[in-house]
Design goal:
single chain
């Protein structure tokens, strides 16, 4: 009988507090569904989907962590609003252990609805997301759809732990406060806050330091190392300035007699100042979450849209081959082998070019290439590909003539000066190429692809000899390259690349029976495109999921913030009406207050994004996306879409806030 009483009380409380519980339950259902879908994707066996599964496993961990933090944070709004209700239970005779039992039953109901509804919703949505992922990865929709018990068990286990931790936190909070404090908790902390100048100074310094790192760091590896440092500094600065800096600004506004002593400004400024201690943390959270949404979507959308450009740069031909052929005999044998193998495959070579390149990595200091690039975080590492003017003409169809000290140069980012030194010899750049003419095969994050066209084979051999002496290397870095396009299908090209690889290994094993091994690389555009779409498609899918989760929690925080603040402010606005303020005046003051609160986080998030843009471009360079105009367009597009959603949330919550503070008799603010 007593068990029924607690269960009925828990259910009644949730129904009575429907405005508070409904958004929270919806959030629980959606977060469980998102986790369930990502776990299912991580288990799914897709051809070539190894990268996808690794990213989904990472997403599984991230969504679990963020879900726990977000649900705990939103639950704190519920407890804060219900403290008075729980205090009344205590005063009316219920002991704390009875209140604990009611909270236990409420948590069990929440877990049942959240996990059950989330798994059901996730199951319905899972197939749609599965097809979306296949489409993003450019896979054919031929795989059967499956439901995995592991996804159900993992979702139930993770979120039961999350709800148990939330329940323990609620128990701890209720146990430490006596009934009188609970009864008056809504009115605690209402003293006008003072300006904490040390926090203002800390906020300015940390935010400035974070911005400086984002703007001034140019090296890709340094950007990777310092990214999280900059993020932490910006987060600290944001919280400090929202908490202390906002109070300083409001105090300054209050000190302006011309601005402050107007009815609309008087109410909004005094209201914000009176409750800023509570508002500041919430506004800072909204700002940080908004920035997370923007950064996550900007990077993933930019990467996915730029993948075609990346494929065209990294794979200029259907099949690219590079072998350290040491003499004319080996080069002739390789070319003949490639032509014969292509013919035997039943495909026709629609284009075939061959050339020699000298490939090696170097650092640069003060316009001089250096073999010492150990301090990679402080300087750029250049992956040099040196080619003769004759071979360059064969590849591009453009005839060029150079003097011994002249070069044509392509270097990503234009960092190499017009005059530079390489192994003691000085060269002048007479022309810079806008596009990379040669395939790099660098495959190393943070390395700058660099092509140098020299005048003759003699100059190329001299650089090769100097490079071998400087690095004390026995293995040759002078590669003979063949690029070819065929008229076969993607599957036929992939099979041909593998056949060529095997035949070249066999051929050079015979040619070099007594002279050591060989260095070789073969690449196929179709294979590379499949791998890139698998990675970037999965990355975009995960980015959309994480962005949606951040956005959901941002909206929920805004909703609860307005709901709680509306109930807190209702009595004050009722008093103002009694002393002469009419509803149009209240409406105007509410609009000013709510607009200020809503504009501050999104404007600050946009400023954060603007300062983060240079570092984001460096990080995207590490993932081989170098098209800065494309990144800028994607960033602006994502910001505009997010701003539209944000404004819609503002309109809805402003209306809700006004209905609460005006007693429910008016619609809209």
């Amino acid at each position: 009988m007593r068990k029924r009483f607690y269960s009925r009380m828990a259910l009644t409380n949730m129904l009575v507090n429907g405005k508070l519980y409904t958004p929270y339950l919806i959030t629980c259902v959606v977060t469980v569904a998102m986790y369930f879908i990502v776990v299912s994707m991580a288990i799914t066996d897709l051809p070539g989907g190894e990268t996808m599964r690794v990213l989904m496993r990472l997403g599984q961990v991230l969504i679990a962590l963020f879900s726990g933090v977000f649900l705990y944070y939103t639950n704190s709004f519920l407890i804060r609003r219900r403290k008075k209700e729980l205090a009344l239970y205590n005063i009316l005779g219920l002991e704390k252990r009875h209140i604990f039992r009611i909270l236990l039953d409420e948590t069990l109901l929440t877990a049942l609805i959240g996990i059950g509804g989330g798994v059901l919703f996730g199951t319905v949505l899972d197939k749609v997301m599965y097809l979306v992922l296949l489409n993003l990865m450019h896979f054919d929709v031929t795989q059967a759809f499956h439901l995995y018990p592991e996804a159900l068990l993992s979702s139930a286990a993770v979120f039961l732990v999350i709800f148990a931790l939330i329940l323990l936190a609620n128990f701890r909070q209720i146990r430490k406060i006596d009934p009188i404090q609970l009864l008056h908790s809504e009115h605690m902390g209402e003293r006008e806050p003072k300006v904490k100048w040390p926090l203002v100074v800390i906020g300015v310094l940390t935010l400035g330091a974070g911005y400086a790192i984002a703007v001034l760091v140019e090296n890709v590896l340094a950007a990777l190392l310092l990214f999280f440092v900059a993020v932490v500094l910006v987060i600290i600065g944001t919280y400090c300035l929202f908490t202390a800096g906002s109070i300083a600004v409001l105090k300054a506004m209050k000190g302006s007699r011309r601005y402050y002593y107007q009815p609309r400004h008087f109410v909004s400024v005094s209201g914000l100042l009176f409750r800023m201690k509570q508002n500041a943390a919430g506004l800072a959270n909204i700002c940080i979450l908004s920035t997370m949404v923007l950064v996550t979507l900007c990077t993933t959308v930019s990467l996915y849209i730029g993948v075609e450009d990346l494929i065209s740069k990294e794979y200029p031909a259907d099949i690219s081959i590079g072998v350290d052929a040491r003499n004319d005999e080996e080069r002739a044998a390789l070319l003949e082998l490639v032509e014969t193998t292509v013919a035997d495959s039943g495909q026709n070579a629609t284009r075939l070019v061959d050339y020699s390149t000298l490939k090696f990595a170097m650092g640069m200091k003060n316009g001089e290439f250096s073999t010492d690039y150990r301090d990679a975080a402080q300087q750029n590492i250049y992956q040099l590909s040196v080619i003769t003017a004759e071979d360059y003409s064969r590849v591009t169809g453009e005839t060029v003539s150079l003097a011994p000290d002249e070069v044509i140069l392509y270097d990503e980012g234009g960092r190499i000066p017009d005059t530079f030194t390489l192994f003691g010899d000085t060269y002048r750049v007479i022309r810079r190429l806008e596009e990379q003419p040669l395939f790099q095969w660098s495959g190393v994050m943070g390395v700058v692809p660099t092509n140098i066209v020299v005048d003759s084979r003699d100059t190329l051999e001299a650089i090769h000899a100097a490079q071998q002496a400087a690095y004390r290397a026995d293995a040759s870095t002078l590669f003979y390259n063949i690029q070819l396009d065929t008229d076969g299908t993607d599957e036929a090209k992939i099979a041909l690349r593998q056949t060529l690889h095997d035949e070249i290994v066999r051929c050079f094993r015979d040619l070099r029976a007594d002279s050591g091994g060989m260095a070789m690389t073969t690449q196929c555009r179709a294979e590379g495109a499949r791998d890139l779409y698998s990675f970037y498609g999965s990355f975009l899918f995960l980015g959309i999921f994480m962005g949606a989760l951040f956005l959901l929690v941002t909206v929920l925080i805004i909703y609860y913030k307005q709901l709680v603040e509306g109930y807190d402010d209702r009595e004050r606005f009722a008093i103002m009406q009694k002393v002469g303020m009419d509803k149009p005046m209240i409406r105007a003051s509410i609009r000013s207050q709510v607009l200020t609160m809503f504009a501050l986080p999104i404007v600050t998030a946009a400023i954060h994004l603007a300062f983060a843009f240079p570092m984001l471009t460096r990080l995207l360079q590490a993932l081989y996306l170098t098209d800065i105009p494309l990144i800028a367009v994607c960033t602006v597009g994502v910001l505009l879409v997010f701003a539209v959603i944000y404004v819609l949330v503002y309109c809805i919550t402003a209306r809700t806030y006004f209905r609460i503070v005006s007693g429910g008799g008016t619609h809209g603010a």
